[in-house]
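Consider the following input, taken from an annotated entry for Acyl-ACP desaturase (Actinocorallia aurantiaca).
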Amino acid sequence: MPEAIDIQVLHELDHVAERELNRHLSIAKEWFPHEYVPWGQGRDFAFLGGEDWVPEDSKVSPESREALLVNLLTEDNLPGYHAAIARIMGHEGAWGQWVHRWTAEENRHGIVIRDFLTVTRAIDPVLLERARMQHMEIGYAPDHDDKVLHGLAYVSFQELATRVSHRNTGKASGDELCEQMMQRVAADENLHMIFYRNLLGAAFEAFPNEAMKAITEVVKGFQMPGYTIDGFLRKSVAIANAGIYDLRLHHDDVLMPVLRKWGVFELEGLSDEGEKARIELSEFLANLDAAATKFEERREARRARIAARA
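Applying the prediction step yields:
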């Protein structure tokens, strides 16, 4: 059962959800997954008399291959995300319309990435399918349960994190068409982020203390939705070492831009509890910044050692 504050937030932000939905529909561009797939490169696998995948088939870098795998498996868990966000926002009015529109747009991402990877043989399709089955059997359960403010805070950061990851994965692939495809997917993620970010921005005006507490808890416990992927930690390290998504990007390009947009450090009139949450947030960000710097230094030292041996 939703708590009283969640019902109040949904009611208070109803007009904002309608406004943001209309804004999104007015600027979102229609696009078609099949146009980004080089179908002419496709050929049959052994089941139909062709040849099964071998590592030499892949033309993308090993790091971007890991990133593409993680990105696609993350998109695959869409049924779980839909269920979670529908529980928070419901199925009525602008909230419900957004949930379904968002789901439809997100579904295109899994379609186009899977078709591209299969046709170009960038990833072993057998490995990919087994990983998909394993990941989806685990499902998805958000850490914030069905709390509206926590949910809005999480997706504000998560959509931007996904945009950054998709764009950098495309760049690292060394494949012009792959980069173009990932840019197209990232553009969707950016519009989704703006929808959620603007909603929570409005929530700060009506519920400043509750919103501050929510974003602090979300930032401190943030995990990407693909964290249940088998071998996620190892893959994340490889992705971070390649500079596709690391602590520095998370701090500088994801957390800080959204927090600045909300004006969390300039907000006045907070209660003691709200101010305490803001102090916790500041301290956490400082520690994250220090950890990001340490990681960067270690990565550069490792690269220097590799270059020296070469």
